[in-house]
Amino acid sequence: MTRVNNPRPDNLMLALLEVCDSGRCGTLEFSCVVDTLKTMSHEEVAAWLESHEASYDAFLTS
């Protein structure tokens, strides 16, 4: 089995802060966060989150 190297995007935290600051949704609303990232031209971050929802959940609860 080949492991895919898919590191976090460099702008992940900045993009999430931008979503939070926008007031469009709370960080616990995963679907809204992803959709908001897409509308804010952060498609790479949104795609990464969609593939790593468990990592996002772990980040929020740590």
Describe the structure using short key phrases.
0% strand, 4 helices, 62 residues, mainly alpha
What's the layout of helices and strands?
Elements: H1 12-22, H2 30-39, H3 43-51, H4 53-61
Question: What features would you describe in this structure?
Answer:
With 62 residues, the protein is mainly alpha-helical. It is built from four helices and no strands. It has helices at 12-22, 30-39, 43-51, 53-61. The chain starts with 11 loop residues before the first helix and ends with a helix. The mean pLDDT is 90.
| Helix share, percent | 55-70%
Broad shape: globular
Total number of helices = 4
- The N- to C-terminal Cα distance equals 30 Å
Radius of gyration: 12 Å
Number of strands: 0
Secondary structure category: mainly alpha
Q: Could you spell the SSE succession in H and E letters?
A: HHHH
Overall pLDDT score: 90
Please give the oligomerization state of what you see. Answer: single chain
